[in-house]
Amino acid sequence: MREFDSLDGANLIDKPVGPTSHDVVDAIRRQFQIKKVGHCGTLDPNATGLLIIVLGRGTKLSERLMSSDKVYEGTVKFGETTDSFDADGELVASLPVPPTTVKQLNELAATFIGDQMQMPPMVSAIKKNGVPLYKLARKGIEVERRPRLIHIYSFRFTAYIEPRGHFRVACTKGTYVRTLAQELGQKLGCGAHLATLRRTVSGKFDIAEAIPLDAALNLSFGELEKRVIPFLKLAS
Question: Is the per-residue pLDDT at 170 higher than 70?
């Protein structure tokens, strides 16, 4: 087996609001002229936080890294339901928010702990006959989806100032946090949507180790090499 190149591995990026995960991949590929670049776990454009970017032969480990558990922090806005379950969607219902406390939110959040079958939202990147569901949703088309088995390790609110609550959730891969927000709103009786989301942990990697995207794109080639997590360390 040939020796590993200095760029065979991964770099940890703190994704800002705005670009898609694929936009981040393309920007790094163009800036550093690297042929093979990928990411491990899509973040929606308005989501921020930890994005594992795999480089060179590190792309062979994408599936393994993608299958890791995740931790997210964010805010839920109660009283407003959107068609996408997040702030990007169209408002479909608005109801008064009942008097609520952090304790009450945590009692409801606790009902999500454990295994559950979660239905992916129509506004998602899952493909049906090769077409992403969000493209069908934009045309007003809704198709049958299969629920997925997920596991919620913890789901807690740390603050609540009407109508927004701040939470932290630890979960398995493939969990749609905006679906949790939408279902929580239903349980509270007023509806809700995911207002903000930030991924802080993916597997053994933490956001504290990541570099902001703009700073990463300003690195020299040598500085980038120093930040790469080597293939063998990723695989261990």
Answer: yes
